[in-house]
Amino acid sequence: MSSLPLAVRDCSTMLRRNLLHARRYPSLTLNLLLTPVMLLLLFVYIFGDVMSAGMGGGGADRSEYIAYVVPGILLMTIGSTVIGAAVSVATDMSEGIVARFRTMAIHRGSVLIGHVVGSVLQSVASVVLVGAVAVAIGFRSKDATALEWLAAFGLLALFALALTWIAVGMGMASPNAEAASNSAMPLILLPLISSAFTPIAAMPGWFQPIARYQPFTPAIETLRGLLLGTEIGNNGWIAIAWCVGLAVLGYRWSASKFGQDTK
Amino acid sequence: MTTPAIAARGLRKSYGDKTVLDGIDLAVPAGTVFSLLGPNGAGKTTAVKILSTLVTADAGELHVAGHDLAADPQAVRAAIGVTGQFSAVDGLITGEENMLLMADLHHLSRREGRRVTGELLERFDLVEASKKPAATYSGGMRRRLDIAMTLVGGPRVIFLDEPTTGLDPRSRHTMWQIIRELVTGGVTVFLTTQYLEEADQLADRIAVLHGGRIAAEGSAGELKRLVPGGHVRLRFTDPAAYRSAALALPGTTRDDEALSLQVPSDGSQRDLRSVLDRLDSAGVEADELTVHTPDLDDVFFALTGGAAIPHQPKENAR
């Protein structure tokens, strides 16, 4: 019964609703944006000298460390922004309005798709804002071509999509907003144990495989390669595999939760 | 056509080993108000959730608006409107935005959406508040917005789950008026309530839900006839007068401590006169006389094992 145009219409209606929420109550989004910006400034201006001293056999200056840390910060921005998706999904599910949606003849997936598209758009906007701060304090790409910029953007968007679906699943599985915010915490903590702030080689040997193959590191290394011309190697494929895997997993998880009976 | 708007045969639902609905049969003719009455936890909300496609039944043949619930839930959804026990409005956006959201989800054109929204906001006295976030509304306003949103798609069957719970008397009467108007428009209303008066006021047919089963079903009048209990109650302050009255009126139930007598009566004028005549001829005068006709409370308590609930007879007329 729900033909494609109607499904698209329902999804865009739900998206409008979520964007309206975000526009009217920007405090959650702004709070989540604060974390990556604070960390960027903290690592560059407070720890910057120590951090850069440990890099490239010492002697690296602050601008080199800015270049090193920004790709990780951008991906962390996504991890942080999608916590908002987990919280707003959990809040939504505890409200009567979603029960109403379920009793209406609308596209079944539109409620979640609206959340996901809204969150991806917010992530992209947040990445642009944090990127602007990075450029303001001296970040510059090294000879990145238009195609590489495009690929970088594509990677960020895909990464945002993957993490958003996971966050939506977490939101669906949480009884309330606080629980959702807690269970989504790893999404902002994972970058701390990736190659975002320090090279993997500087970590204890037993920990290196964990740091190397968790979802953030391959994405960070790929982004570095695209923007700064470092070696990408097989990180690109690993990053894409992670994104697709997480997106499918999160989608399946959310959809099955949404399909369950209400209590 | 006499296809009922809502039909259920052998509806069952249990959560774990707790049976909530234990084989329920219902048939609600189109254009009528059907009330499901029951104490808290009787399974009223579960019944609404099942019939409105939110929860799947364990067993039962269920049809709403002519569509099979199991086979074509989406067709059922297209025909129904639901106002749940907890308000189903989006508190973060304004009343008007809530209405326009519904219009969009019913795939109305922009112009049609604006028209319907304007009309309903007007009808439910929400025009003034329409630009404020719904979270700032009072309980009565939220409930009105809730019903207005339910009406956007022009549903033929409306489920109202305890629509007046928590409302002040004025808002309750407003809600009753709204429900009566809906039925005048040909809509079928499935109403759950724990207020007997509400069912009495609104419903064409009432089913009392108890222990997962329908304990009784019928019109308010039919249900009231199920229980005895019509009587005249006479109270005295003078023990001597009380004793002589008891002698003059054989067949009464005596309450020696309270000095009161219960005389079985159908409450008719003729019956009352005969009681009074007998008191006159015995030369006694009661200090207080009340006529008690059975109401739904009596039915309710009689059917749902009211022994546990303090029975407080309501004196209807003086």
Automatic annotation (TrEMBL), chain A:
Location in or out of the cell: Cell membrane; Membrane
Q: What is its main location?
A: membrane
Where are its TM segments located? 25-46, 66-90, 111-137, 149-172, 184-207, 236-254
Q: ABC transmembrane type-2 domain location, by residue? A: 27-261
Q: How does it sit in the membrane?
A: Multi-pass membrane protein
| Protein family (similarity comment) | Belongs to the ABC-2 integral membrane protein family.
* Protein's recorded name: Transport permease protein
Origin organism is Streptomyces amritsarensis
TrEMBL record, chain B:
Keywords (A to Z) from UniProt: Antibiotic resistance, ATP-binding, Nucleotide-binding, Transport
What topology does it adopt in the membrane?
Peripheral membrane protein
Q: Which residues form the ABC transporter domain?
A: 6-236
Give a yes or no for keyword Mitochondrion in this entry: no
Q: Where in the cell is it found?
A: Cell membrane
Q: Which domain of life does the UniProt lineage start with?
A: Bacteria
Whether Nucleotide-binding counts among this entry's keywords is yes
The protein's name in its UniProt record: ABC transporter
> Which species is listed as the source?
Streptomyces amritsarensis
